[in-house]
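Anyone have tokens for HTTM domain protein? Sequence:
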Amino acid sequence: MTRVLNFLRRPFVLDLRALALLRIATAAVVLTDLAIRSTDLEAHYANMGILPLHVLYERNWNAYQVSLHNISGLWQIQALLFLVAAGFATMLLLGYKTRLATVVSWLLLVSLQNRNPIIGQGGDDLLRMLLFWGIFLPWGRMYSTDAGRTEPKPAAYSYFSAATVAYVVQLALVYWCTALLKNAPEWTTEGTAIYYALSLDQVLMPGGRILYQFPEVMRFLTFATYYTELLLPFVLFIPVGVPFWRMLFVVVMYGFHLGISLTLFVGLFFLINMASVLGLLPTPVMDWIDRQVRTRTQRLQPHLTRLSNWRSPVRVNVESSLNLPPKTIQILHGLRNAVVTLLLAYVCWWNLDSIANPSLTMSEPLRWFGYLFRTDQHWGMFAPAVFKDDGWYILDATTPKGRHIDLNRKGRPLTLAKPASVVSLFKNDRWRKYSENYLFVSNAYLRPYYCNYLLRVWNEDSDNAPVRRLDVIYMKEVSLPNYKVATPSREVLCSCETAPPAK
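Reply: yep, here.
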């Protein structure tokens, strides 16, 4: 029986050094995310921006959600919270007080994402879940400053627990659910999904422009994408030849997401996904990486005493430091595994419900946990079909003298002509996602806040010509089959004016 169990658990045995790389990469992505978001502190997180707190509570809030970022509508308070988050993410990167750094980084990321859900994307769910499962993983036991305060080196780097099962299953769920949600004919039979995706000028990157010229290649890649997402995760559960299957999954996923980043503007989505699979790296690969890293850091060894103990576990664990008897330690480990198992079952149920299986629907009273701890997730990337309503924004501003300029093009004279690069009009992917959500009728309440924010910010800059009125216009251009598009239609989404001068 023991031999059978050991055989079945092989796919879930991870290398401690690979988990350390997962930790480092996750922390690096969190820091990058904070750096990008910090350029829009007032716009995205303050009351003077596009989503004031009272609007958030009225329109986008769930009673079970929590956010420290909601304690104030001042951008200065947001800046302070960003600095705190960056500090703990840096601790996580270095592996200093790893468990504490993981918990706080997760809490602050949940808080930040709750503050403005309008600018969220699928990668945010995965980043949040990496930190969540990281709370239960020993990803600080290697390549960390914690490793300087340790007991003797471990006899082996292999590690298995309910948390490693949860991590592997979570990765599989991402791709399985993504594929199962892509149930439109353009994915399953027609093979036109990538054609339509690359027809969206709002996300088209230079690599996509090149690929767009080859319809048969796009058709092949559509089916390749669908079946890769649907079938490849199964290799993570094969109990024989585990190192080979793991590396196959990692290599394919790296190529897959690198290809996405070169063709579509997806923000940090591709980096989050590339970071997420590092924990799968098998022991032979980690042995090679370990040798290369240690060889290249030998010269810096005297200066990196605490950072260079590559072969030590993190620190004396809590149970050992409390001098608990072995039986008690075993009970605590069993309790932790039981808790993680229940959490994983809940996450699996949530995902099964998201693919619209009526027999597996999760009742609303059970969803509070997912909302509170943000284990809720939805992997509907370009699903069930690719968005067809493409177009570009024109910010038609009228000066006191009646001139029309486009704030979206830094105050140049107004023109309805399509820009050479629509994607270049967006400062970052958060703004691109916001502009996408801004179009929906259900989000019409957002429109005046965006319009007034743009008008105020423009007029506050003394280098800009003052404007008295702003019309947010969308030039809608629907993508059609066979490289055709509908004639662009002009839609005025919102209008706002400055207050008239006092008499």
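The two ends are 90 Å apart (CA to CA).
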